[in-house]
Design brief:
By secondary structure, this protein is mainly β. Helices cover about 5% and strands about 45% of the residues. The chain has one helix at about 60-65; strands spanning about 15-30, 40-45, 50-60, 75-85, 105. A hairpin with a 4-residue loop joins β2 and β3 (about 50-60).
Length: about 110
């Protein structure tokens, strides 16, 4: 059975069997400077039709996905976990369509 395609605003916390389509706006590396700059994860800001979402790829999965990340490109993602996010990200007006808070995807 194929996974259902949904919008970010439809996601609930927990494991997600749905598929989302989103544009990768920006991404950056998080490094542990106390451990010689060890790479911990890559954080990303993504947007679907009207919702911005922060996403993270952990260090253990980066070798599989890092070379595929390109800002501005649209990705189809499935098989991920959704967690509530205490952080709110503001985008430059050029990207802003809605003032909704983000949700974290891990």
């Amino acid at each position: 059975m194929a996974a259902t395609r949904v919008f970010f605003s439809d996601l609930k916390a927990g494991k997600c069997s749905s598929t989302v389509e989103a544009r990768l706006l920006r991404f950056w590396e998080a490094r542990n400077m106390k451990r010689g700059g060890e790479l911990m994860w890559v954080d990303m800001l993504t947007v679907d039709v009207n919702t911005v979402m922060q996403a993270t790829i952990g260090a253990s999965r980066l070798t599989r996905f890092r070379h595929k990340l390109t800002a501005g490109k649209v990705y189809t993602v499935s098989g991920f976990d959704v967690a509530r996010c205490a952080q709110n990200f503001l985008l430059p007006r050029a990207y802003r369509r809605s003032s909704r808070a983000c949700k974290a995807v891990t």
